[in-house]
Design a protein that fits this description.
Layout lengths: L1 H6 L3 H25 L7 H23 L10 H17 L4 H19 L1
Helix pairs in contact: 4-5
Length: about 120
């Protein structure tokens, strides 16, 4: 009995890979099939976009107001100003995400260094 289980050491790994693949890949394929039939201005697409935006906004708000780890060492004012300047830079640059991220990160690190 022990010899049989030692030869099947790979079985749990196979279960994890198959279960992980099924849990994610099914939804990806459904998205691929449904994407061709959705119009960008349809109610379903607008709802999905609104939910995704709300989730990202919630995560960002949580990181700013209730950070964990090393980020909690930065003063809250620095975190708020960094987010505001990053958003402002994003809008001024015509929606370039990299500009907003670099501005927010630079502001956060500089404020943390000088005020923290």
């Amino acid at each position: 009995m022990i010899a049989e289980t030692s030869q099947l050491w790979w079985w749990p790994y196979l279960i994890i890979v198959v279960a992980g693949w099924l849990a994610t890949d099914v939804w990806r394929w459904l998205g691929v099939f449904a994407a061709g039939r959705l119009h960008e201005e349809s109610q379903v697409f607008l709802w999905v976009r609104a939910v995704a935006t709300a989730l990202i906004a919630g995560i960002i708000a949580r990181l700013i107001l209730f950070p964990t780890g090393v980020l909690s060492e930065a003063p809250m004012l620095v975190r708020i100003v960094a987010a505001a300047l990053g958003f402002l830079a994003f809008n001024i640059s015509g929606g370039r995400l990299l500009v907003g991220i670099v501005t927010a990160e630079t502001t956060l690190l500089a404020g943390w260094y000088f005020l923290g």
